[in-house]
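Justification of computing resources. Each target in the renewal requires a structure prediction run like the one illustrated here; the chain below, 777 residues long, is used simply to show the kind of job we budget for.
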Amino acid sequence: MAALTEPLDSISGSASSSSSSSDGASSPEADGERLPEHVMELVDREIGGDLKCLKKVSGLLEKLTAENKALEEQVLTVSSSVPLRVSAALSAAEESRRTLEELLQKERLLSDTLLRHLQGSQSWADSLGQKLGQLDTVERHSAPIPPSKELSKRNIFPTIQQFLMTSSVWEAVGAVGTMAKLDLGLKESRCAHLQAHLRETLRFWHKILKDRLASDFDEVLTQLQWPFLSPPVASLSPPANAAELASQLELLVSQLLSLQTSDDLTAESKLTPSRPGLAPATPLSLPIQIMLLPLSKRFRYHFAGNRQTNSLSKPEWFLTQVLMWMGYSSNFMEEKIQPILNRARVELCRGLLSLVQEKLASDAPRLLYDDALFCHLVDEVLQFERELRTTHGYPSSLPGALPILLEESIFQKWLSVEKKMAVEKVDAMLSAEGAWSSQYRDITDVDELKAPDCAETFMTLLLTITDRYRSLPCPRAQLSFLALQKELVDDFRIRLTQVMKEESRCPLGARYCAILNATNYISSVLSDWADNVFFLQLQQAAVSLGEEVWGPLGATEVGRLASLEGSIFEGLLGLLERLKGDMLGRLLDAVMREVREKAQPYCRDRWLSLPSQSDQATMSLSSSACPMMLCMRDRLLQLQQLLCLPLFQSFWQGLAERLDHFLYQDVILCNHFNEGGAAQLQFDMMRNLFPLFGHYCKRPENFFKHVKEACIILTLNVGSALLLRDVLQQSQEEGENFSSEAQKPLPESALNELGVYRLAPCDVLILLSLRASWPGK
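Resulting structure tokens:
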């Protein structure tokens, strides 16, 4: 406000001065004594005492008038803007003051309420604090009472020293065991100082006793030539002190086992959390720990640090070394240690396996960016696992080296590398020169499925992948590999479809048939796998995991999988069967196009004017049917050589069905037959067409039922034909069902007596109408 008022004051003062000057200039005589001094100085300076200079007065007056007017305009401008800003500032200040008063009022209300609440609850807080203090005192003093009484009563600490001084080792071991039990009793106590004191005392005496027993145990083991770093050589005669060594060994192992509880307690603070994927850190028995020390030192000497034997590219070196140590020590553990310590050999293998796990956990992450070395590591670990389980009988209930490969980053790398390698192999096998020929084509007994080399190699690849993940201990990991296999199968199916479309212009070619054989081979192998116990177990595991594996499925699909009605490969099998059916259809279409073309003269043959059978010396195949028959014979022989047996059976049966329909529709129903024509048709079918298919089944006429039954109707003698026509017409006119003794309708019964089962009565009437040899005609 001061900054605003000062300019206003100066302007007002200037204006007043100007006004006074103007007034003084206009009437100096009236107010001469009240004129300001600076006005008088101005007049003297401008006019002076020379009266001749009075002519300057008018100019001075104009100048002063202009200055006065300018000052008035400035005053008006400032006075119109400044009051608005001042008013706004005053309004904001007033609003802030009002808000502050409201907040202060609320704060006073909250303070009063809180103070009243604290005053009311103070008594409760004081009472609760007393109770909690009493409970804490009781808990602190009650927990250590039994152990402290035990300590004071037995006076264990001096006793252990006395036992050791008198070489009473068993008694010292018992005293340390008692101390370990007391330590366990104090585990839930809150007396931290007493517990720490007891633990330190236990650690002190345990170390003294353990070192003494370990030293004696080492001496005995050394005399027994432990460790075995090469194949043990059986001595011709046992050492002189063999019985004494066996007695000392049994005694020391038993004493060390008695220290197991205290050893586990003293080792608790030294345990480090195990890496994910490593076996659970269950402590090894104390004798095995001591026996492992020289082997562990050798392992770390050779396979840690900068030694040449510590090579990332040679994991087989340390894996083979561990397996050799297991083999060399097997007999000694079973004969010397196993009678004293149960499962001693397994415990030693578990200890050596922990070295392998530690080494693999260190090396595997370093190979994630080198596919070749990573694949080599996985292969060696899988081989190690197989030998560990089979050769050395390591129990399947205990984890081996494979859990290291199941760590998330390592497992994902394994999956990606497995897929990459498989895709590269598929590319190579499909582009190979002999991809579509069978390697067993010259061996008839072996080459039943006629699978091309690419399909057989592909399924061998899938089988290899199965063998690699079969021993994984985690069903979820196995299902991940199964998903990869299904993805590879679907990719291979798509590739087959692409090649098939390229070859579909020549469906009778060898490559097209090889693709069809490949599809059938993969489908049959997957069908066998679906009934395999391993894949059935995987299916149950997938059902138990639910949507995590299958995604959202309906209750029906899940129920079918759970009840084993469905298959884990069901989707893939459906796609493969669809491809196989499509290819078979194309093949049949191509053959039937040729047959139809060759059969056109046969369809237009003169069936009404052929001589009767009695007028011919011998019946022979119609000349117009020869091209058709030769075409069928050649295609059947050709495809019998190209297709595997199941596919060829489907092919010739489908061809017979289509041919039966074609001959019935285009030859029989499109022509009329005299007696000779009907006999010739029957001869062509029964003595020529059916025997073509007689090489593949015993009763080929059963696949040509329309043609066979039509020949029966057309070749009936006149009397039987007339009687049959009357029966069928009567039945058709009356529309009633007549029953025979067998309770069958009369028309069907009459047809069945003639050997007609497929054709309906109306169809038989049509066939009878095609006969030209009726009485009176």
